[in-house]
């Protein structure tokens, strides 16, 4: 089965030239450039897990890699008792 195809008509000359110029700068065809732009915008993104999301959130806060450094005060702490 052939891959789906798309024809785009009535592009402005400026847009067409910009696509060709960017494609040439990257050493690819204009068709490949448009394919990449469409894939970047519309292809489904892989779903990351909750752990990946939490790590990304923590990384955004510029915390020390070995964790926060705080003094633990253990005054007035009763040990746990189990019966």
- What is the H/E string? HHH
Give the overall shape. Answer: elongated
**Number of DSSP helices?**
3
Helix content: 40-55%
**Average pLDDT for all residues:** 89
End-to-end separation: 69 Å
Largest sheet: none
Strand content: under 5%
Count of distinct strands: 0
Multimerization status: single chain
Radius of gyration: 27 Å
**Class derived from helix and strand content:** mainly alpha
Protein name: Antitoxin FitA-like ribbon-helix-helix domain-containing protein
Organism: Jannaschia aquimarina
InterPro entries: Arc_rbn_hlx_hlx, FitA-like_RHH, Ribbon_hlx_hlx
Domain Antitoxin FitA-like ribbon-helix-helix: 4-40
What's the helix and strand layout?
Blueprint: H1 13-26, H2 30-42, H3 50-59
Helix pairs in contact: 1-2
Pfam family, one: FitA-like_RHH
Domain Antitoxin FitA-like ribbon-helix-helix: 4-40
GO biological process, one term: regulation of DNA-templated transcription
